[in-house]
Amino acid sequence: MIEILISFAFATAVLSLSPGPDNIFVITQSIVNGTKYGIATVVGLMSGCLVHTTLVAFGVSTIIKENESLFFIIKLLGASYLLFLAYKVYKSDAKIVLSNTNIQKESVFQLFKKGFIMNVLNPKVALFFLAFFPQFLFSKTISTVIQFYTLGGIFILVSFLVFAGIALLSGSISSYLKENDKVGVYLKWGQVTVFIFIAIMILL
């Protein structure tokens, strides 16, 4: 059980560090508005993750109780989706482009709300949670709802620590990312590796 949770936390950390719209948004808001505002954005994003965790916890748990064969199909579809994400990352540009031009200053609450809405209304996040979380269920005796909330809690905690670290170090990180092209390449291949590893683990 511990090994599975550690693997999940590691995979979450790699995915959180990979260049994407969320962490780029956190960096730009931190640079333009300050660290406090970057943290507010992070809290909003993580609050949205709690909504997705709840939907997956109760929805997938119901499916497991009613039809294990259907749940197996969901796992296969999840593996396929993760391989698709790996392919998309592989085909994407490894360069990290940061721009803080034309960004309006907003209040702490406005940035929290924007982060929350960005996350909750993003169908890709819902699909990712549905593909990612069921593969790390760690017990046959503990309620699946409790397991999903445990995974959601770990995901939110690890992602918050990574994103908050990005917000705190946004100035130096942005300069470093702009000056070092290889960073994007390393993060890109780290993300591809995690997606493929999880998908293969499911299929085997």
Distance between the termini: 19 Å
Radius of gyration: 17 Å
What is the strand content? under 5%
Return the average pLDDT rounded to an integer.
Answer: 84
Helix fraction?
A: over 70%
Computed structural class? mainly alpha
Count every beta strand, where a strand is a DSSP E run of 2 or more residues. Answer: 0
Largest sheet: none
Helices, by number, come to: 9
Shape: globular
Spans where pLDDT lies below 50 across 5 or more residues: none
Which series of helices and strands comes N to C?
Answer: HHHHHHHHH
Description:
The protein is 81% helix and 0% strand. It has nine helices and no strands. Helix 2 packs across helix 8 (170-179) and helix 3 packs antiparallel against helix 4 (68-91). The chain is globular, with a radius of gyration of 17 Å. The mean pLDDT is 84.
